Structures are given as structure tokens and as C-alpha cells.
Fold this sequence. Notes:
The complex is a heterodimer of chains A (198) and B (85).
Chain A: H1 4-17, H2 20-30, H3 41-54, H4 56-60, H5 67-88, H6 91-103, H7 109-120, H8 123-142, H9 145-156, H10 161-168, H11 172-197
Helix pairs in contact in A: 2-3, 2-5, 3-5, 8-11, 9-11, 10-11
Chain B: H1 12-28, H2 35-41, H3 46-68, H4 72-79
Helix pairs in contact in B: 1-3, 2-3
Amino acid sequence: MNSPEQDRLNYWGQTFLEYQKPLLKLASRNLNPILQRRFSPEDVLQETFQDALRKLDFFENNPECPVYMKLRKLLFQKIADLERRHCQTQKRDAFRDAVAADFGGTSSSQLDWNRLADSMTGPLTRLARMDRNDLLQKAIASLSETDRQILEMRHFDDMSNQECAEALKIEPKAASIRYVRALQRLQKLLLEYSDFTS
Amino acid sequence: MNADHSNPDHSNDDALTELVERFLDLYKKETVTDVELYCLRYPKYADELRGLLPLALQMEGLKKNSNANAANNEAQTVLFSGPQV
């Protein structure tokens, strides 16, 4: 017979695995390509689950926050931590590995990519886009947590409505309505901001 | 998906939700890319769709910009800080 602590770990271990698929997709999309040469998305997710099992109070407190959103938070923290450790402190080594693999060791290729990126967007275009995006980010930050969660899942985690419904444990139709209402509230906020700034 | 907008049981909210979802689905498949043309097909909901669809596309653009940014992960963590650990 298992101890209560072992049962607790087993329960959460099983629960976390239910979110493996969307989180793996999220890790693949957000893991820096340079880091991907050293860690697979599966590795990162495995470490995230290990962190999660060490922080069960975080999952047991505040139960109204979906488990997916809590795991997502830990996943981003793990990725940020890996970037800090491997891309900043060992930036040159990691970058040299990547350049050597991509360009046969021709590190000057980096400059060509920078020039190409500059030619695609002029400074004014970039500035206008930044202003618009800043306003959008400000409005998103002002939304309720529920609204923000569904928008993040749909647009930043690239999840389908069906996947959102599964992660939030609600019906697909309810997830869809929640998404469109969040968009409507975001639109209203943006209109208020633009009235204020115009 | 065929939205029956003549059905009186079909609430405005439901129909609008369905139309937004349908547009995003078609947009992702690159079957429909023009918001205005899509709005013209549904005059009853055109005003609302004209507000919501460009916003949804702008959100997609924000994601692309964010992904292109080398500091993407940390930025997302800051912007969408989520629950406190």
C-alpha cells in the first residue's frame, strides 16, 4: 500500500501527463533554436514536470487557476532559466556551435541575416508596429485572468478550440464563446485606450 | 460548418462565435485571407466581425513578432506572468 505522499505524487504525475501534448508543442515552439541543439523539447518538459512535482502546493492552492496555465508558467520559467544559463553565460560557445552547424563554420553569415532583417522593415514601419503592439499588450494585461488565459492559449500557444476546451475541462462550445467574449472585451478596452490617446 | 442564421433558436452570440471561429479556421488554411470580403458575406454580423477579426489577426501578428524575438520566452513570461509560483 502506498503512503499518502506517494499517492499524492502519483495523482499529480498522472494529471500532469494529461497536458503533455499541448505543452510539448509549446516547448517546441518556444525553445530557442540554439538551445534545441543541446536540449530537446521533451527534455525541457521532463524537467518542468519534475519541478512541478516539487511544487505541489502551487498546484493545490488556487484551484480555480487551470492546471495547464500553472504548468505553462513553470515551462516558461524553465526555458528562461535555460536561456540564462546556456545562452548568456555560454553565449559564444552555443552560438559558435549553431553557426558551425548551419553555415559550415562561416560565422560572418550572421551579419547577412541581420542585414536581411533590416531590409524587410523600415524604421517607421517598425515604430508603428511597436506602438500598436504596445497598446495591445497593455490592453491584454488589463483583462481578467480568465479572458487573458483563453487568448494566450488560442493565439500564443497556438491551441485549437478543442485543445483549449480539453485543457480547461470545459465544452468546446463554452471555450469558443469564452474566446469570442474575451476578444470583444479586448476590443472594447482598445477603443477606450484609443479614445484616451487620440 | 454551415451556420443557419435564419434559425430563431440560434442566438446572435452563438452565430457570431461560429463566424469568428470559421474565419480563423479558413484563415489558417489560407482559404480566406480578406476580412472585408468575409464580412460582406454576413451583413447582419459585419460590423462586429470588422472589429473582432482584425484584432484576432493582430494577436496572431504579436505572436509571430514575439517568436521572432530572441528574448521571446522571457518576454512572454513577463507579459503573461500567470499565477505566482
